[in-house]
Amino acid sequence: MALDRKITTLLFDWDGTLADSSHRSFIAFEKSLRHLGIAFTREIYDAYYSPNAYLMYEALSLPAEHWPQADDLWLQHYGEDPAELVADARETVVSLHRKGYSFAVVSSGSRSRVMREIGESNLASIFSVVVCNEDIQQKKPHPEGLEKAMAMLGAGKEFCSYIGDAPEDIRMGKNAEVLTVAVPGSFPSSKDLRDAHPDIYLSSIKELLLHF
């Protein structure tokens, strides 16, 4: 059971939660930051990764005036290969859709990339609302992205749940006062998920079917 709430709307993070993009993300960061004169190793990635890349840029002492360039370089190096979904992600989402839930994606990623990957994954008809980096002013864990998605869906917060793989996702969900569900992924920040105190902690995405 989803605690004591009558959940009708499921909002998902994209990278790490549904899309298995951690390795490609690391390579893109390594190449873009090298271009800007910053050595970026797997150890640094594990220590400083955040869904809010600006927090990572700040920790690495990259001047703020270079952050937009870093974003552009990241997109260039990430490439346009078809997205790979997390194991069981598509089957789980399709099963939940058949149960009648409404869906949205709320992501820190760029709209062009996330929309392309959703389309390539044959999930565009399920995710009727997608809120991305360009659609908001405040980044995770600020609740703006979730609040915008809920408004677009016409869904009250008491009927919504946000599913994510990073502590920032859980904190954003709590800030928006929705039910929070944590599912660990391959991004480094997943190791700290329990510390964010999600309402529900899963070991895999398919366990959503045990609660919804």
Brief synopsis:
37% of the residues lie in helices and 11% in strands. The protein is α/β, with parallel strands linked by helices and 212 residues long.
Topology:
Blueprint: E1 9-12, H1 22-35, H2 42-48, H3 53-59, H4 67-78, H5 89-98, E2 102-106, H6 111-120, E3 129-131, H7 144-153, E4 160-164, H8 167-175, E5 179-182, E6 200-201
Parallel strand pairs: 1-2, 1-4, 2-3, 4-5, 5-6
Helix pairs in contact: 1-4
Keywords:
37% helix; 8 helices; 6 strands; 2 domains; 212 residues; Rossmann fold; alpha/beta
How large a portion of the residues is in β-strands, by DSSP E? 5-15%
Read across the widest sheet, the strand sequence of neighbours is: 3-2-1-4-5-6
Query: Fraction of residues in helices?
Result: 25-40%
- Extended strand count: 6
Would you tell me the overall average pLDDT? 94
- Major sheet attributes: 6 strands, parallel
Distance between the termini: 7 Å
Low-confidence stretches: none
- CATH arch. level architecture of the largest domain: 3-Layer(aba) Sandwich
From the structure provided, what is the oligomeric state, counting identical versus distinct chains? single chain
Series of H and E elements: EHHHHHEHEHEHEE
User: Helix/strand-derived class?
Assistant: alpha/beta
> What would the CATH topology of the largest domain be?
Rossmann fold
Please characterize this protein's 3D structure:
- The protein has 212 residues and is of the alpha/beta class.
- The protein folds into two domains: 9-20 and 84-210, Rossmann fold (3-Layer(aba) Sandwich); 22-78.
- Helix content is 37%, strand content 11%.
- The protein has helices spanning 22-35, 42-48, 53-59, 67-78, 89-98, 111-120, 144-153, 167-175; strands spanning 9-12, 102-106, 129-131, 160-164, 179-182, 200-201.
- Strand 4, helix 8 and strand 5 form a beta-alpha-beta unit.
- Helix 1 (22-35) packs across helix 4 (67-78).
